Amino acid sequence: MDTIEKIEALKKRTKQMALRVIKMTQKLPKTDEARVIGKQILRSATSVAANYRAVARNRSDAERISKLSIVTEEADETLFWLELLVEAEIVPITKLSDLMAECEEILKMTSKSLSNLKEKANKKRE
């Protein structure tokens, strides 16, 4: 798989994750706590997808690093909110484990890509 194919595949995965989060939040209980966490997770998960989509359009390494930094931060935040839903006993782990695993995988991939991009940019400066 070449770089463009990898980018396209991850674009699809981040969008699918955002869609899964949208569907999950629609099923959350109608409590104040669930609503607050639901809004937060909607913002962070959709930001992952939107900002990763922008990574492919950026023209410079600096722009890619900036957007990928946002993606990584938002993926970590999404994972945090998912963990909070479980630990606050709002949603059972059995219903979120697959989504949490996908989010964690996306976080690892984007973190690695960010690290590689930063390393590449540093080598160019030398």
Question: Helical residue percent?
Answer: over 70%
Number of helices: 4
The pLDDT mean sits at 94
User: What is the fold named in CATH at topology level?
Assistant: de novo design (two linked rop proteins)
CATH superfamily: 23S rRNA-intervening sequence
Low-pLDDT sequence parts: none
Cα separation of the termini: 30 Å
Structural Rg: 16 Å
N to C succession of SSEs: HHHH
- Secondary structure class reads mainly alpha
CATH class: Mainly Alpha
Largest sheet: none
| Number of structural units classed as domains | 1
Note the overall shape: elongated
The CATH architecture would be: Up-down Bundle
Beta-strand content bin: under 5%
The count of β-strands is 0
